[in-house]
């Protein structure tokens, strides 16, 4: 495949989860807290060109 060389890039992510019961856990976080933008290319994986990204969700099930 093609090789792409980029300058050094630091991305900081934060996530947390909380168990509400034996069957329910809530989680959320922020990816790329500082909003750093990587070099734009289709080879920038695993970094996203979107900048800061927020997420949250629920895990429901039994152990």
Automatic annotation (TrEMBL):
Name used for this protein in its record: TonB-dependent receptor-like beta-barrel domain-containing protein
Xref: SUPFAM superfamilies: Porins (SSF56935)
Provenance organism: marine metagenome
Lineage of origin: unclassified sequences, metagenomes, ecological metagenomes
